[in-house]
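ok so for the tutorial part 2 we go from a plain amino acid sequence to predicted structure tokens. step 1 is just haveing the sequence, like this:
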Amino acid sequence: MKTNVQFVHTDSKMSAEQLVQRKLDKLENKYDWIISADVMFREEKSTNGNGKTCAIELSLPGPKIHASSNSDSFEAAAAETVKDIEKQLKKRKAEMQSH
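step 2 — the prediction. this is what the tokens look like for a chain of 99 residues:
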């Protein structure tokens, strides 16, 4: 799987990039039909302190899967986003098996 990681309006953080890469590798081992992943980390000014966003879009057979989350750190946002992606992948796999 090809993974493209971008940092928008912020400096790149290796810890966040490595965390998301490690989690996506686990998903790739479990769901071998994932083609590629686009990951975007973005920092926005926020009054509630949750200004760090992680968005992930996976290319697969059929429609793409997209999820994003907002947290106080890139690592927490990435973990939450990967959790949401995994739920969608489980649902997609169940749909594929029923056809």
